[in-house]
Design a protein that fits this description.
The protein is mostly helical. The chain is built from 5 helices and 2 strands. The mean pLDDT is about 75.
Length: about 130
């Protein structure tokens, strides 16, 4: 089969695989560089400087000040970009009521997201985000 006659599906699949491998390689290189930069090398059994703890060696300088500034926007970012619009695919609560019992609905779970909520507004995850700095 001639190269120009190959199906577009094969080309797209190969392109996707190539891009995925390239992205994974870039992430691995970036993570390796950050790890190598973060950990100072000390000889085994070397004494620590006065007033220095082992935790100081694990956390690079300035991270404790930069982390709250980096995580605050993540906690308050709107999760669903189509929230409060007529085309929101997540706005699909289902409910039912049997006899005289209270109605049961999935709206309690989906409402925080479909109303434009952030990570901190979710029912269970929101409480866990209070543990993050920022």
């Amino acid at each position: 089969m001639a190269r120009h006659a190959a199906s577009n599906n094969q080309r797209r699949a190969l392109l996707r695989v190539g891009l995925t491998v390239a992205a994974a390689g870039a992430a691995a290189i970036g993570a390796g560089g950050a790890a190598a930069q973060a950990a100072p090398v000390l000889p085994l059994g070397a004494p620590l400087a006065s007033g220095q703890s082992a935790d100081d060696l694990l956390v690079p300088a300035g991270v404790e000040h930069a982390l709250p500034g980096a995580l605050a926007p993540v906690k308050s970012l709107q999760l669903d970009p189509l929230a409060n619009s007529g085309v929101d695919p997540l706005d699909n609560a289902v409910g039912t009521q049997i006899a005289d019992f209270k109605p049961v609905s999935t709206a309690m779970v989906t409402d925080p997201v479909t109303r434009g909520g952030a990570l901190q507004d979710l029912p269970l995850v929101g409480q866990a985000t209070a543990l993050l700095p920022g």
